[in-house]
Amino acid sequence: MAGDRVQSLSKPPRPSIDFSSHVLVFVARDETADSCRTIAINRVEVDRGRFDVFVDDIRAPMNCSCPPVVTDPVHVVAVARVASTATFHYRSVTQGAECR
Question: How far, in Å, CA of 83 to CA of 100, rounded?
Fold first, then answer.
């Protein structure tokens, strides 16, 4: 049992990225003082040699209780190296069931 627990606390292996054919797209939300906010790359499209990165700024419904925990949400995805510039499009999203 203890061995199982140690295994579950270990860091996952680093993903293998071939930077000759792929790039990483990284988005981060500024420090937030509650646990109800996060950020996620919804999709990445290519348009005329440019990445269009669609990002969701996600929050739990307003009536939810959010523990006061300082976080710095990030999301990283690997995409094929087919463009050299990027434009980021953000939208606010409420996600999750209504809280009571």
Answer: 46
